[in-house]
Amino acid sequence: MSICEDFFSSNPQPTNYDILSNKIKDFCQLHKHDKVVLITSGGTAVPLERHTVRSLENFSQGTRGSSSAEYFLKSGYAVIFLYRLKSLEPFTRHFSDINIFDWLVVDNENESSQIKVGSQYVSTLLPILKKYKEVMNSGKLLSIPYISLSDYLWLLRAACNALSSLNGKALLYLAAAVSDFYIPLDKMPTHKIQSDNGAPNISLHLVPKILEPLVHSWVPNAYVVSFKLETNTSLLHSKARRALEKYHHKMVIGNILQTRKYQVIIVTENEDYDIVLSEEEKVQNVEIESKIVEYLCKKHDLFLNS
Ligand code: 9Z3
């Protein structure tokens, strides 16, 4: 059995797996004539105990994935958004730092009380609410939440299986921050780790490299884009290129944690392409994802027409 299959046989499916994987299948069937993008977003949690009190988190706010989802929708794609529960989501992300109660007013003028949005907030809320309603009415956005690494991998594989029926029109945009390390279930304590015996020695194992089966067997005809995250600038380019050479997918987008909102490097077989926001664009709040998605849509169209 491959290391990857071994992972699936020793880590149980998420509890709502059948419901979620059927939703994904139905979505792909409904959009079989559309371009469909699977966006993964947010960070995985790796539990340290079976009854989990503590876990190991990979950093990601979900900005990259959720804002990219909006730009893909704008470009006509149907979007499967596989995201870490409680990380940012398309449209609602614009209001992640507000307290909704501050925006609402209770109108007691009529007999039955009504709730209204404070007039000073309407111009901010309305355009985004309209876009959200339009997208939801079109049925072009399917959001699927995960929490743990294991749930993420099960749902990712289910999505790939469903997408493989789309005759190569699927795009995979793997922006989730996925742990490289985990504790196998048979090595994981059932109950909360106790401090009475001093600091625990926690031994982490390597997560199987899922890009290998993903690119070559799960969804071999798709256009696969992965992300590479580093904190040391001198490693980024070589590690991004190495990943492309290892897995033979279409593109690696490299970013440095500290500058990820302004700068990325796109590595393809034939070129390295930098996207850097200018000072003026930063002032105008241009989102780098608008440029990444624009570049990607062009490349994907070229691929589909070739
Ligand atoms: C990324 O590099 C994403 O761009 C970020 C986005 C997680 C930095 P935010 O959600 O951040 O906007 O706050 N994602 C990929 C990270 C990752 O785990 N990549 C693996 C690696 O670097 C390879 S698949 O080894």
Automatic annotation (TrEMBL):
Pfam families: DFP. GO terms for biological process: coenzyme A biosynthetic process. InterPro entries: CoaB-like_sf, DNA/pantothenate-metab_flavo_C. It comes from Nezara viridula (Southern green stink bug). Belongs to the PPC synthetase family. Residues 166-291 form the DNA/pantothenate metabolism flavoprotein C-terminal domain. GO terms for molecular function: catalytic activity. SUPFAM superfamilies: CoaB-like. This is DNA/pantothenate metabolism flavoprotein C-terminal domain-containing protein.
